[in-house]
Structure formats: structure tokens, C-alpha cells
Design brief:
This protein has about 260 residues and is an alpha/beta fold. It has 10 helices and 10 strands. The radius of gyration is 19 Å and the shape is globular. The protein starts with a strand and ends with a helix. The structure holds adenosine-5'-triphosphate (ATP).
């Protein structure tokens, strides 16, 4: 299996945020993790990225136990992520933000970069080429020199995803990628995720509340409620799954 979580449990003090979770994701698919607010979705992502340590369970990526790795080593292994609230350098340009996405992989250290040694210059050229290629595919090349804080939120989210792609990940983790986007931007991004899967061979693991996007582009969906997986299957199966309908209706009742 490409990516697997086995019996993973994550606790915060007395609270069990993720409870005995099994998940399997196949190579080159779009996998969505959905569920009501507070279900534990972001905790799952933060556990895969190694920000949180589970008290039990295993996470295996391409046969490797990633619980033995540090966050930057997870990136080197081929897993990159975007953030729910966009964690970019607001005062830097789009291009410079993309450059920072590559830092976990760069060979040149501060020493060679400050002296601009040949290896560093070559690396810099490659970085620039890669950044421009990603911006081109996202159709946002025109904003390369813009300062991030001046961009609308939808574009900032795209830049955040572009930065995650700089390491050429095999598995891309996305935390609510279309939150705050308008329908046109959402559609554009949905198309882009398909392109990532079909043309770049990237597996997309996404947390998302926009159900029409999730149902449209996911190959498989898993549903969390109170930290437990209550359903998994094809979009058509999830849409009609009684436990899923119940979980979402329950949420609506609470907010009413
Ligand atoms: N760092 C933390 N410390 C303590 N409790 C936490 C922490 N992170 C999350 N929790 C709790 O764990 C539970 C799951 O939260 P999580 O953010 O993973 O849910 P979610 O499904 O991503 O929700 P949302 O859709 O609202 O983003 C919640 O009860 C939350 O309050």
C-alpha cells in the first residue's frame, strides 16, 4: 500500500482527538477526509506531518515507518502539505515564498549561498525554473513578483499550494484548500488537483468542507466523526451512507 495509517490514536490530555484510525490511500488518487467540525481531521494531517505524536498506531508511507521521522524528513520522503490558514511570508514576493518551499531539500548551506558559489548559483537557477513551471501550471505566473500580503486570499491559498509542490511531493496533504475561495477559483483548483493526479502522478490527500468539490473530484472518501472513521468508500456510497447523513444532520441540529 502507498500510504497507510494503522490503529492510530492521538490524545490531547484526556481528549481522544483521533481514535484507532485505519486509513489506506492508493497511489495516484484523490483521497478526501471529511467530517463535522472538531471530528479530528486536522489532527490527522498534523500527525502525518509529524507535528503530533500518536500514543498508538503506525503510519507507513511507501513501506517506511514515518513515525520515526522528523517533520523535515517527512518532506524529504515525499510528503508535503499546505495549511488551513496559509502560512506564507506575507512581506515576501510569491517567487521568494516558493523558494522557501525548497529549503528542506537544498544541498547548499548558508555558507555557499552567502558566497554565491557555483553550486549555489546552479541550484538557484533550477529553483527558479521549478517555481515558474508550477506557477505556469496554476496559471498564476503573472503574480510571481507580487508581495503576498497584497494578494486576495484565494490567490494566497494557491501560492501556499504552489510552495508545497516545490519539493515535488508524491503525497500532497491539503487542509481545506478551497476555504475562502469563490466558485470560479474552486473550480480552477479542482481541475488543478486532477491535473496533479493525472499528469504529475501526485496523490492528493485532502480535508475539505466543500462537499460539491469533494464529491466531484475524489476517488475515495473517508468520514470521521468524534475521531473515529464512520464510513469509507466512493463518493456515491458516501452521499447515501446513513451514518454520514446522521453525523452531518447532528451537526446542523447543534448549530440550529
Ligand atoms: N493542539 C491541540 N490541543 C488540544 N486539543 C486539540 C488540539 N488540536 C485539536 N484539538 C481538539 O481535538 C479535536 C479535533 O480537532 P481537529 O482540529 O482535528 O478537528 P477538525 O475535524 O479538523 O475540525 P475543523 O473541521 O473544525 O477544522 C477537537 O476537539 C479539538 O478541540
Amino acid at each position: 500500500m502507498f500510504f497507510e495509517m494503522k490503529a492510530v490514536t492521538v490524545q490531547f490530555g484526556g481528549l481522544t482527538a483521533v481514535n484507532n484510525l485505519d486509513l489506506s490511500v492508493e497511489d495516484k488518487q484523490i483521497f478526501s477526509l471529511i467530517g463535522p467540525n472538531g471530528a479530528g481531521k486536522t489532527t490527522v494531517l498534523n500527525t502525518i506531518s509529524r507535528f503530533y505524536q500518536p500514543i498508538r498506531g503506525q503510519i507507513v508511507f511507501e513501506g517506511k515507518n514515518i513515525l520515526a521521522l522528523k517533520p523535515h524528513q517527512v518532506i524529504r520522503a515525499g510528503i508535503a502539505r499546505s495549511f488551513q490558514n496559509v502560512e506564507l511570508f506575507a512581506n515576501m514576493t510569491v517567487l521568494d515564498n516558493l523558494r522557501t518551499g525548497l529549503h528542506p531539500l537544498l544541498k547548499s548551506g548558508v555558507f555557499s549561498s552567502s558566497l554565491r558559489l557555483p553550486g549555489f548559483v546552479k541550484e538557484e537557477k533550477e529553483v527558479l525554473k521549478k517555481a515558474e513551471e508550477i506557477l505556469e501550471v496554476l496559471e498564476i505566473r503573472d503574480i510571481a513578483q507580487e508581495v503576498v500580503k497584497n494578494l486576495p486570499f484565494g490567490l494566497q491559498k494557491m501560492v501556499d499550494i504552489a510552495r508545497a509542490l516545490m519539493v515535488k511531493p508524491k503525497l500532497l496533504l491539503l487542509d481545506e484548500p478551497v476555504a475562502g475561495m469563490n466558485p470560479a477559483e474552486t473550480e480552477r483548483l479542482g481541475e488543478f488537483f486532477r491535473k496533479l493526479r493525472d499528469e504529475w502522478g501526485v496523490t492528493v490527500f485532502m480535508i475539505e468542507h466543500d462537499m460539491s468539490l469533494v464529491m466531484e473530484i475524489s476517488d475515495r472518501i473517508a468520514v470521521l466523526d468524534f475521531g473515529m472513521k464512520i464510513a469509507e468508500g466512493l463518493p456515491t456510497e458516501i452521499q447515501t451512507h446513513p451514518a454520514v447523513i446522521e453525523a452531518y444532520l447532528g451537526e446542523r441540529d447543534e448549530s440550529a
